């Protein structure tokens, strides 16, 4: 006597739950990738009680080894080889817009004369300078300025 199964086993499965998981992973990696600064210049900024609300379009960074970096808008920071090259970049920024704000991120170990050089270059090109500082806190940790 031959017995037959009454129910057939279906070999397919639903992909709906798999696509939900994929979308959640995609959202997770998109959100976390905007937080991470893979290329960063470590600069320990001096502390200040006063902060500005202006958003600078150009950023000049001087690290503790006296390396110069410049970034326009949302671009990555470019390394500058000497002060003359930096002068050319700031002159070009001043020609684009006379109301350009330039933020100067200088490590607190940078000699004051280096900061004054940058301030004089900006003044010659009629640029408004903003010295970047960090708020006064108990723990002073290096701040990563994205390139």
DSSP strand tally: 9
Radius of gyration: 26 Å
Residues in helix, %: 25-40%
Task: Indicate the proportion of strand residues.
Answer: 15-25%
Structure annotation, total helices: 3
Distance between the termini: 79 Å
Residue stretches low in confidence (pLDDT < 50, at least 5 long) are none
Order of helices and strands: HEEEEEHEHEEE
| Strand order in space, largest sheet | 5-4-3-6-7
Q: Structural class from helices and strands?
A: alpha/beta
What about the largest sheet?
5 strands, mixed
Mean pLDDT: 77
Structural shape: elongated
Which features characterize this protein?
elongated, two-stranded antiparallel ribbon, 147 residues, five-stranded mixed β-sheet, alpha/beta
How would you sum up this structure, described in words?
With 147 residues, the protein is an alpha/beta fold. It has helices at residues 16-35, 83-96, 112-124, and strands spanning 40-43, 47-48, 58-62, 68-72, 78-80, 101-106, 128-131, 134-135, 143-146.
Describe the structure concisely for a colleague.
With 147 residues, this protein is an alpha/beta fold. The chain has helices at 16-35, 83-96, 112-124, and strands spanning 40-43, 47-48, 58-62, 68-72, 78-80, 101-106, 128-131, 134-135, 143-146.
């Amino acid at each position: 006597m031959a017995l037959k199964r009454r129910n057939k086993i279906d070999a397919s499965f639903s992909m709906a739950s798999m696509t939900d998981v994929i979308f959640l992973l995609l959202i997770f990696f998109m959100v976390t990738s905007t937080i991470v600064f893979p290329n960063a210049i470590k600069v320990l900024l001096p502390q200040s009680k006063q902060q500005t609300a202006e958003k600078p379009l150009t950023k000049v960074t001087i690290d503790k080894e006296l390396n110069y970096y410049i970034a326009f808008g949302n671009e990555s920071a470019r390394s500058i080889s000497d002060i003359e090259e930096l002068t050319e970049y700031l002159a070009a920024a001043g020609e684009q817009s006379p109301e350009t704000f330039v933020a100067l991120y200088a490590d607190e170990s940078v000699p004051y004369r280096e900061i004054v050089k940058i301030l004089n270059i900006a003044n010659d090109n009629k640029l408004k300078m903003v010295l970047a500082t960090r708020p006064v806190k108990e723990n002073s940790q290096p701040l990563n300025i994205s390139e």
